[in-house]
């Protein structure tokens, strides 16, 4: 796996974001090819595969603007990162993510309430066996060059995504797709090798491009979105202006600028002074200080799905013994770690599950893996564990160090020695990535960030050969394929709960929380929001005078 568009996208620093271990959702597809049934006439275009998040924000969101928004103005987004390139399919760093919805469009789009709605596709249908999906396109969309956007562009983009030579992890989300064809100018047909009940969700991340203009994507990207490129200095600045010929609602903003500042401290200073309006990846300490600031607010998603966790090698001692893994699950003080490392932004994972307690698919019937050092000591003794090593990263991600020190002290109180070793990013990753490597006795902090809240895009990380923890469970894999082929949401949720029960019993990894990397936002700005996976949506923004 290559980096999920730094779909670490929004959580880890750029060095970490380039690593494949920061993975979103990597799934497998069945190879059987049953005959395709006749298309259905249903498949509502706006039905959400998951229920809309109902939870209140975990930290104070940006307050309402202090004055009524006015049309015009330039929104300035600043941070310690730069944008190295503009191709939305390759997508190398988290800082590039907000550009997707500004310069491009997908077939479908994630709405703020968590539902999937139409964008380039006006409607879509699927066959009874979910192996053929047909999307009907809008007829009024043009690229900046004036070229009409047609089904051929969709087919060309999807073919590029599916090409193994293309460095993109978006391919994992559509891995069951075998062929995409233009039936006519405005009808595109997806053929799949196995059923996929959430293909309409998966394609929302994929920007449809003019493949004839790939060579100039970094100088004059020929997009179809609400903004267009005015200037680009790689790793320094991106300047966008409103696309006056945009087919959709006219943006309020005249333009949006991305600027690189010296470091996070400089970026926070610029945010406080009003030099910039938005700062992604706001350090948790600054987020806590800004919660009561009269000029700046803190923006987080209602249902964060970025997941800090510990990877354990399930195939070598001591963690090939489930008792050692259960002991680890009882050794982590999740509430203390969430508060100390993430300043309480998010939710602890009480039952050691990868889904948020706010997810519609969460299995609330499972008892907590409570912080119980006496129980942990008993299980460690049964598994013969006396010493462990915490294999971490030097400097790049402070929460790794914070949670490691809490764990180290708690383990020491029950006679378990854990040595903390911090390494350069490449050395850290080489030890356990790609999946299949042995790392006996190591506890490895890692971070997952997903773009979609549907449990299918989260639970598939733990499929066989997916997780670096080297866990393999045939029943879990089988249930995943059943869920993927199940069009009924309530039936899918029942399957998700079965998968979580297997995860709960086997403890393939130790889940700490579902958190997020907050953004700082001027209270003069409205209409900006954050997806569950951390992507900032700026296209509807406006600035009060």
Q: Can you give a write-up of this model?
A:
It is a single chain. The chain has a domain at 307-514: Dipeptide-binding Protein, domain 3, CATH 3.10.105. Helix content is 23%, strand content 20%. It is α+β, with helices and mostly antiparallel strands and 545 residues long.
What would a concise description of this structure say?
It is built from 14 helices and 24 strands. It is an alpha+beta fold.
Keywords, separated by commas or semicolons:
24 strands; globular; four-stranded mixed sheet; disordered N terminus; 545 residues; alpha+beta; five-stranded mixed sheet; Dipeptide-binding Protein, domain 3; 14 helices; 23% helix
Number of helices: 14
CATH superfamily descriptor of the domain at 307-514: Dipeptide-binding Protein, Domain 3
Shape: globular
CATH architecture of the domain at 307-514: Roll
End-to-end separation: 46 Å
CATH topology of the domain at 307-514: Dipeptide-binding Protein, domain 3
- Order of adjacent strands in the largest pleated sheet: 16-15-17-13-18
Unreliable stretches, pLDDT < 50, 5 or more residues? 1-67
Overall mean confidence score, pLDDT: 86
Number of strands: 24
Oligomeric category: single chain
Tell me about the largest β-sheet.
Answer: 5 strands, mixed
Taken as a percent bin, the fraction of beta residues is 15-25%
- Determine Rg (CA atoms, Å): 23 Å
CATH class of the domain at 307-514: Alpha Beta
